[in-house]
Amino acid sequence: MNARTDPRMLGQLSTAHLDALEEETVFIMREVAAAFERPALLFSGGKDSLVMLKCAEKAFGAGRIPYPLLMIDTGHNFCEVTDFRDLRAKELGAELIVRRVEDSMKRGTVRLAHAGESRNVHQSVTLLEAIDEFRFDALIGGARRDEEKARAKERIFSHRDSFGQWQPKAQRPELWTLFNTRLQAGEHFRVFPISNWTELDVWQYIEREQIALPSLYYAHQRRVVERKGLLVPVTELTPLQEGEQAVEKTVRFRTVGDITCTCPVDSPATTAAEIVIETLAVDVSERGATRMDDKTSDASMEKRKKDGYF
């Protein structure tokens, strides 16, 4: 056991920087409320959106968040997460808007190449339809720059054109926390208040603030199969392939999304404090270690973002 994995070192980790990160996030949350007429907070029930929700409570007061929560549901989300999402929204007395990819499929705006195709990438269509339905002019999301290369390129206030597309070379400067929020008709912004946070920061904040999370984030027993270097959960949506054999492992999820593309990692961690210690030692990003849909190509996320993805 070394200094980076010894639980006794947790008390020696400085958390002073969390105050600055929280202050920045609260400031951005308030800027959104002041600058836009119809903002919404993207809320999946995952750890990053729950951290944002906590900061929103601090920005405006418990039960006084001035914008609705929006969830784009693929229909293939873990029930532990969607149940927790509904519970948390009810506790806060917040308006929760859920729009489903399945409804886009019924309208014919989403067409799967085959029945087993992941619906994750198709959330972009349903999201853009929700933006048009409610005339949202700003969506607050929980993306962080440390997650993935394309997300590292994005501004905190990320402009989207009238087609919902992101143009990396046409981003607006953000100097001295001055944000250009001017919009033309049909355009909107994606706002990322925790852009400057890391996975470690998120877990330290969760531990410090005692933020409740869905149980999947902590160690539990699950049937998995190793596939392309990842532990794939064995479910009706992700069944065993020919020649594969499932094993029972103690795992947890570093990130939670669509069942068809989200994988757990080996871990005995049952508390946020233990996950902080684990996170100190990892050398692979959470998306790189847990997302099958990010394995297709280095440019896949950037292309999806240009097409309107989160």
Question: Can you describe what's shown?
Answer:
- With 310 residues, the chain is an alpha/beta fold.
- The protein folds into 2 domains: 7-200 and 298-306, HUPs (Rossmann fold, 3-Layer(aba) Sandwich); 213-295, no CATH class.
- Helices cover 34% and strands 15% of the residues.
- It is built from 10 helices and 10 strands.
- It is globular and about 55 Å long.
- Mean pLDDT is 87; it is low at 1-5 and 295-299.
Write the layout of secondary structure elements.
Blueprint lengths: L15 H20 L3 E4 L4 H14 L8 E5 L5 H14 L3 E5 H7 L15 H12 L3 E3 L8 H4 L4 E4 L27 E4 L7 H11 L10 E8 L2 E4 L13 E6 L12 E2 L5 H10 L4 H5 L9 H7 L4
Parallel strand pairs: 1-2, 1-4, 2-3, 4-6
Antiparallel strand pairs: 5-6, 7-8, 7-9, 9-10
